[in-house]
Design a protein that fits this description.
The chain is mainly alpha-helical and about 260 residues long. The chain has twelve helices and eight strands. A hairpin with a 5-residue loop joins strand 2 and strand 3.
Length: about 260
Amino acid sequence: MNTRLKMIGIDRFIRLKWLEYTSDFVLAGNDEKAVKEELERLISSAFDCSSSSKRGSLSKTLTILLKTWVRVHPDIYSLRDSGLDLIQKTENTNHIAFHWGMITAAYPFWGAVAEQTGRLLRLQGNVTKNQIQRRLREQYGERETVSRTVGRVLQSFVDWSVLCETSGKGIYSQGCTYSVDNPKIISWLIEADLHRRSSGSASIRELLTCTSLFPFCLKQLPAEHLVAMSPRMNLLRHGLDDELVMLQDPENTSREF
């Protein structure tokens, strides 16, 4: 997990509908090769593959989609399987919470951009690309890759309708927000967010209001209720009001799907 936390990885613009295609193909029983072929057929028109650089962009985008829902890191096998199961059982056709959770777990850089975006939106009502780039360079180093990738993640947020572009260049405001009342989905989102954290743990109060989940309003539920819904999380209490939720060692949990 530490290796993933240090990497940027997600250096492409990712449309929400592309992830929806990906999860749909997996749920239909396709193997990785078939999923990749179907995705390439559907999204290649968005890329001008007449040049090697454009073909490379398509290939990198396909890799991100596959690593989010298909070829996932072993640490998040069970999270992925539970997410697919919940998608099947959820009557709502809007699956943005599951795609947000999986891409955050697979690519913690997405969650880092979201955390800073949500924090600034909460503080001042809008956010600029320069502000996010500056904060992410402080975390990941003064690299041009960081600034470029932040821009692509923010473009993705706009495509997902959770950010809105304003009349000012590089300035964004809050987009759509979604209320999440289902305890199973809340528990799953919390678990997904823990995978982006170096400690793999956080207080329940922080998790239910964390800015990395800024598009979602999570219902306030007891920590023991949420933790009981996943065999991959533990609850540690320090006094009456300090409840720490943490990921279990992956070796001590089994795959579910």
